[in-house]
């Protein structure tokens, strides 16, 4: 189902922070803050993860000239650590009404949809939405210890250390505004390889984008760009091939981009590209916001994808269920 | 699009595993690690009073020590990405699995974190080594007592 | 013929690693599954009495790969079984091998005291 936002809630301000390795990112210059220590001078990676979230929120408040946390009605956010403790701990410090949201790496958009709904409803003047990931704490959660010498295949992706958050408020002209959103289904085409997330998630992105276009009665070319979250280089190719099979032309396929595929440029040491809940969030809520604000893009579809697996489900032999959520953002 | 059609697209686009390249890298680096180990056995035989049969233990310990250093400085991970099984199969890989888990879980404390997780990755090797040794020795014992084979 | 000696260590050690690589790439096994399989293989070879000749031939080329861990456990169990019968199967296992495990524990513990996990690429 597509949700139409008649009041067109706007993205008032964005905040993005990233870790030291993200200096290699092609989006580096768009990030508000880059920290030298991936632990943010904390004792543990998880504490650093929480600090990163707080910092992104502080940047937003500064940009929007909000001095009191109480002026923000809702904080909608999630991450990938067990029970999302970094986000929960950041919410403790922020002291804003909070719902933890989990759509894995698609949380950047699912939280934005919920924030827009609350705004549309009149229940929220300002709501912060977004997500984050910190490489070290996510890798140990889902894969191996950081210093373990396992061999990653070409399809593997690198979890970013980054956070991206957006402040959603009532409609303001000349600001990126959310006009429609699609909450995705969970799609599972039987991929079992946890080192091939792009292949697992591409069908979910395909399903959500197609459903959004159909319900909105739009063509691919109605958009300046359709940007998926973290399919990676190989996942993006698969997505394009799926649309090519439904009859999309080459120039239409050019409209598709992927935050994860572009994140680290052509650097081969990151294999297929970037991933993690902070990947799409930090690109959407920095680079993409600025492209919309400057008028380079007038209408974009942001479709964040998430792989809903756990190490437990993988070890029990389950395939990887995936989801994708999309928002249509325009600027007048 | 059904699952089968999708599988075709996915298989077509996903780059194939570079079997030959991986094998060559595993052979060269695995062989090199064993050669270093071989040099260490000579070192212990020549400079200490170890024999060919007893030299395995200090050699393994030395190799694990080297693995600890490489793991701690983040080098074994890079080696593993290149070498694959070439760095995983030698005893240094066993050391890397133990040491990396120990470092990783330090933040949960020395008892529950380090103590509880140190064999998170390498534990299965010990379990299967011991279990298989038990069954093999048992079978051999039975066969010997039946007079089928000799010790 | 020290050169041949080292060459044999290199080639045999390398080949055992190649078997591991094939298990991972072709057999699609995780590293833990691969290593467990190799250890079991080492035990079986020891039971057949084929691993000792391999060590005589290749030296560290056969003692450094994880297969030798299975061999050492099994050889210990068999040696004790020969002396003490049934009880020896259980008690003999760690007679021969312990250094790999004990050194890994000691060095792992020391490493945990010294190092922090780093998430750096390259």
Automatic annotation (TrEMBL), chain A:
<dbReference type="InterPro" id="IPR010894">
    <property type="entry name" value="SpoVAD"/>
</dbReference>
<dbReference type="InterPro" id="IPR038369">
    <property type="entry name" value="SpoVAD_sf"/>
</dbReference>
<dbReference type="Pfam" id="PF07451">
    <property type="entry name" value="SpoVAD"/>
</dbReference>
<protein>
    <submittedName>
        <fullName>Stage V sporulation protein AD</fullName>
    </submittedName>
</protein>
<dbReference type="GO" id="GO:0016746">
    <property type="term" value="F:acyltransferase activity"/>
</dbReference>
<dbReference type="InterPro" id="IPR016039">
    <property type="entry name" value="Thiolase-like"/>
</dbReference>
TrEMBL record, chain B:
<keyword id="KW-0472">Membrane</keyword>
<dbReference type="Pfam" id="PF03862">
    <property type="entry name" value="SpoVAC_SpoVAEB"/>
</dbReference>
<feature type="transmembrane region" description="Helical">
    <location>
        <begin position="59"/>
        <end position="76"/>
    </location>
</feature>
<feature type="transmembrane region" description="Helical">
    <location>
        <begin position="123"/>
        <end position="149"/>
    </location>
</feature>
<feature type="transmembrane region" description="Helical">
    <location>
        <begin position="83"/>
        <end position="103"/>
    </location>
</feature>
<dbReference type="InterPro" id="IPR005562">
    <property type="entry name" value="SpoVA"/>
</dbReference>
<protein>
    <submittedName>
        <fullName>Stage V sporulation protein AC</fullName>
    </submittedName>
</protein>
<keyword id="KW-1133">Transmembrane helix</keyword>
<dbReference type="InterPro" id="IPR014203">
    <property type="entry name" value="Spore_V_AC"/>
</dbReference>
<feature type="transmembrane region" description="Helical">
    <location>
        <begin position="26"/>
        <end position="47"/>
    </location>
</feature>
<keyword id="KW-0812">Transmembrane</keyword>
TrEMBL record, chain C:
<feature type="transmembrane region" description="Helical">
    <location>
        <begin position="96"/>
        <end position="115"/>
    </location>
</feature>
<feature type="transmembrane region" description="Helical">
    <location>
        <begin position="35"/>
        <end position="51"/>
    </location>
</feature>
<keyword id="KW-0472">Membrane</keyword>
<dbReference type="InterPro" id="IPR014204">
    <property type="entry name" value="Spore_V_AE"/>
</dbReference>
<dbReference type="InterPro" id="IPR005562">
    <property type="entry name" value="SpoVA"/>
</dbReference>
<keyword id="KW-1133">Transmembrane helix</keyword>
<feature type="transmembrane region" description="Helical">
    <location>
        <begin position="6"/>
        <end position="23"/>
    </location>
</feature>
<dbReference type="Pfam" id="PF03862">
    <property type="entry name" value="SpoVAC_SpoVAEB"/>
</dbReference>
<keyword id="KW-0812">Transmembrane</keyword>
<protein>
    <submittedName>
        <fullName>Stage V sporulation protein AE</fullName>
    </submittedName>
</protein>
């Amino acid at each position: 189902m597509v949700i139409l936002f008649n009041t067109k809630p706007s993205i008032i301000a964005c905040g993005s922070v990233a870790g030291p390795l993200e200096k290699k990112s092609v989006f580096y210059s768009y990030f508000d803050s880059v920290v030298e220590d991936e632990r943010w001078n904390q004792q543990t990676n998880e504490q650093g993860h929480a600090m990163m979230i707080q910092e992104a929120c502080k940047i937003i408040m500064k940009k929007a000239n909000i001095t009191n946390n109480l002026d923000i009605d809702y904080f909608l956010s999630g991450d990938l650590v067990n029970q999302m403790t970094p986000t929960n701990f950041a919410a403790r410090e922020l002291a804003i009404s909070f719902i933890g949201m989990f759509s894995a790496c698609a949380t950047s958009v699912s939280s934005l949809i919920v924030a827009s709904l609350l705004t549309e409803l009149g229940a929220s003047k300002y709501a912060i939405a977004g997500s984050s990931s910190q490489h070290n704490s996510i890798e140990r959660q889902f894969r191996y210890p950081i210093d373990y010498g396992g061999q990653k295949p070409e399809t593997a992706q690198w979890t970013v250390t980054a956070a991206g958050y957006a402040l959603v408020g009532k409609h303001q002209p000349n600001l990126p505004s959310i006009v429609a959103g699609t909450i995705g289904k969970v799609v599972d085409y039987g991929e079992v390889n946890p080192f091939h997330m792009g292949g697992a998630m591409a069908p979910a992105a395909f399903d959500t984008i197609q459903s959004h276009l159909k319900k909105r009665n739009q063509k691919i070319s109605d958009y300046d760009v359709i940007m998926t979250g973290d399919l990676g280089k190989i996942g993006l190719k698969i997505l394009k091939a799926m649309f090519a099979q439904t009859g999309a032309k080459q120039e239409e396929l050019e409209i598709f981009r992927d935050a994860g595929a572009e994140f680290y440029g052509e650097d081969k040491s990151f294999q297929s590209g970037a991933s993690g809940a902070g990947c799409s969030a930090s690109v959407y809520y920095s680079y993409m916001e600025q492209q919309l604000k400057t008028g380079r893009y007038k209408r974009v579809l942001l479709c964040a994808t998430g792989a809903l697996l756990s190490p437990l489900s993988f070890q029990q032999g389950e395939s990887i269920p995936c989801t994708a959520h999309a928002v249509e953002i325009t600027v007048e | 699009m059904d699952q089968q059609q999708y599988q075709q697209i996915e298989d077509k686009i996903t780059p194939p595993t570079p079997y030959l390249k991986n094998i060559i890298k595993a052979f060269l680096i695995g062989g090199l690690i064993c050669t270093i180990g071989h040099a260490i056995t000579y070192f212990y035989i020549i400079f200490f009073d170890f024999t060919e049969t007893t030299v395995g233990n200090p050699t393994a310990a030395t190799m694990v020590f080297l693995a600890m250093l490489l793991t701690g400085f983040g080098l074994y991970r890079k080696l593993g990405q290149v070498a694959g099984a070439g760095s995983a199969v030698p005893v240094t890989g066993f050391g890397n699995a133990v040491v990396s888990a120990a470092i990783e879980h330090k933040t949960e404390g020395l008892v529950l974190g380090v103590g509880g997780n140190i064999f998170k990755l390498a534990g299965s090797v010990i379990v299967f080594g011991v279990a298989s040794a038990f069954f093999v020795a048992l079978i051999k014992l039975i066969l010997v007592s039946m007079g089928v084979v000799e010790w | 013929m020290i050169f041949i000696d080292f060459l044999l260590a290199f080639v045999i050690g390398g080949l055992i690693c190649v078997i591991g690589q094939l298990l991972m790439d072709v057999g699609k096994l995780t590293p833990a599954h691969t290593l467990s399989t190799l250890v079991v293989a080492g035990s079986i070879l020891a039971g057949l009495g084929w691993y000792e000749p391999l060590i005589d031939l290749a030296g560290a080329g056969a003692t450094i790969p994880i297969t030798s861990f299975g061999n050492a456990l099994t050889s210990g169990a068999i040696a004790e079984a020969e002396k003490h019968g049934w009880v020896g199967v259980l008690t003999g296992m760690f007679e021969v091998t312990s250094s790999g495990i004990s050194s890994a524990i000691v060095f792992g513990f020391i490493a945990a005291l010294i190092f922090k996990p780093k998430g750096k690429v390259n």
